[in-house]
Design a protein that fits this description.
Layout lengths: L1 H13 L13 E7 L6 E11 L2 E5 L10 H8 L2 E8 L2 E11 L2 H14 L2 H8 L6 E6 L1
Antiparallel strand pairs: 1-2, 1-4, 2-3, 3-6, 4-5, 5-6
Length: 138
């Protein structure tokens, strides 16, 4: 997974926030987190949905029955940074992460499934409620 992420990250940065392959045409950002225990810096590419001036990201983990490590890291250290493509450039933005409440999550999650049906498939693979995290500017 790390090699795959590294390739996506390099392509994202080299092309002003645009990538091909599975993510071609999809809104993508790079989420910078700090390891909850290790305190090591981590970067994860992920799809997002623009929500009220912020960015919603989805802890789908391709439908596995556990949350991805980056979610655990965000809960431990919620003040992070993202890289987003803007007019052919990559901009780094300091953000605060908060897991959305069930009532706030529902319309965002439903819209993500409508736009990208793969998320509905992830939901079918697991019994857990897939967390949605809102990233807002600090």
């Amino acid at each position: 997974m790390s090699d795959w992420n590294d390739k996506v990250i390099a392509e994202f940065r080299g092309n002003g926030g645009k990538v091909g392959g599975n993510f071609e045409g999809a809104p993508l950002l790079l989420l910078h987190t700090t390891g909850a225990k290790s305190r090591e810096s981590r970067v994860n590419p992920m799809m997002y949905q623009a929500v009220d001036g912020g960015w919603a990201v989805f802890a789908s983990y391709a439908g596995l029955d556990v949350n991805p490590a980056w979610l655990h890291n965000l809960k431990a250290h919620p003040d992070v940074a993202i890289e987003v493509g803007a007019e052919g450039e990559v901009e780094t933005i300091d953000v605060h992460a908060k897991v959305m409440t069930p009532e706030d999550r529902e319309p965002v999650w439903e819209e993500q499934k409508r736009r990208y049906p793969g998320f509905a498939e992830y939901e079918q693979k697991t019994d857990r409620v897939i967390p949605v995290v809102l990233l807002t500017r600090r």
